[in-house]
Design brief:
Length: 307
């Protein structure tokens, strides 16, 4: 059942993002370039609302999409970085045991009684991203990013989505906390493993392809204003060529940005073989990959890229 507060928040979001074209333009204004497919998926995630799963190789902009969306909605982003072995306490809440012990000692010094209720109040709660997103007071829903959900186990997937489906959490000592504004939920995955069907059925889905050289160059120019147009395009061409090799860790957009940033600091506006050779560590970050690229040679790497 919608409350006046929730209805007002929905109307506010609709005013900010009335259609897909407006969302594309707003993301562009935040220096995030989204194609129509991605923008449509994000639009539906916000307006339905429904969780969205973004998959793609590392470095294609999945996490940045969530950041950009939160920015244009002028709402907090709560990010939960998933990893193997993550549990509910790290995602939801924990009790501040050190503060509880301090409370007990202070009560002893004052010769005052201390009860369980005293020690398990809201002031002793350490709120983690899931609870923070649920408790967010508005005026618009927060964006909750479950980053690299594929690194967590299936049990954690189930826990997370049962909780989000209810947009509420029960803390035995405090009762049930319900979201005034259920968060906009974005999950990302690098496909290190297949996610459970029960999870994917509940989500919208979009695969983010690795962009071509021209799009990479445009992203780099926006993120590294000091880069010249030709330098950004040449770096994008080199990155694209590297990705044709069987690398353990192919460079992504983030590596392209880091590389061009380093080149700009060095005062380099054109990538020749010598430059590529001495700065290769900015884009190739695995010893076996370095040997593979080295076997091809820096001349091969810059050939046909304008270097």
């Amino acid at each position: 059942m919608s409350t006046p507060s929730r209805t007002g928040a929905e109307e506010d979001v609709q005013r900010r993002i009335p259609d897909v074209a407006t969302l594309i333009s707003a993301l562009d204004g935040s220096d995030y370039l989204a194609d129509v497919g991605l923008a449509t998926a994000l639009f539906l995630a916000v307006r339905l609302p429904q969780p969205i799963l973004l998959e793609g190789e590392a470095g294609v902009g999945k996490t940045e999409a969530a950041k950009a969306l939160a920015g244009l909605l002028d709402t907090p982003l709560y990010r939960l970085q998933c990893y193997e072995g993550i549990d509910a306490g790290e995602a939801l809440y924990e009790w501040n045991h050190q503060r509880q012990l301090l409370g007990i000692r202070l009560a002893e010094v004052r010769d005052a009684a201390v009860t369980e209720t005293d020690l398990f109040g809201p002031e002793y709660l350490l709120r983690r991203p899931l609870l923070q997103a649920i408790e967010h007071p508005g005026p618009r829903p927060a964006v909750l990013l479950l980053d690299e959900i594929d690194r967590a186990d299936a049990e954690f997937e189930a826990f997370t989505f049962e909780l989000l489906a209810e947009a509420a959490v029960t803390i035995p000592e405090l009762g049930t906390i319900r979201a005034t504004h259920p968060p906009i939920v974005i999950l990302t995955s690098n496909r290190t493993r297949d996610l459970h069907d029960a999870l994917t059925r509940r989500c919208l889905y979009h695969w983010i392809d690795y962009p071509g050289p021209e799009r990479i160059a445009e992203i780099v120019r926006r993120r590294v204003p000091a880069s010249s147009g030709p330098l950004a395009l040449q770096a994008a061409a080199v990155i694209t060529k590297l990705r044709t090799l069987d690398l353990a860790k192919p460079p992504g957009i983030s590596e392209a940005i880091d590389w061009v940033s380093a080149l700009a600091v060095l005062g380099i506006d054109r990538i020749d073989a010598a430059t590529a050779d001495r700065t290769l560590g900015s884009i190739v970050k695995n010893r076996d990959d370095l040997e593979l690229v080295g076997a091809r040679g820096a001349d091969w790497l810059v050939a046909g890229t304008g270097g």
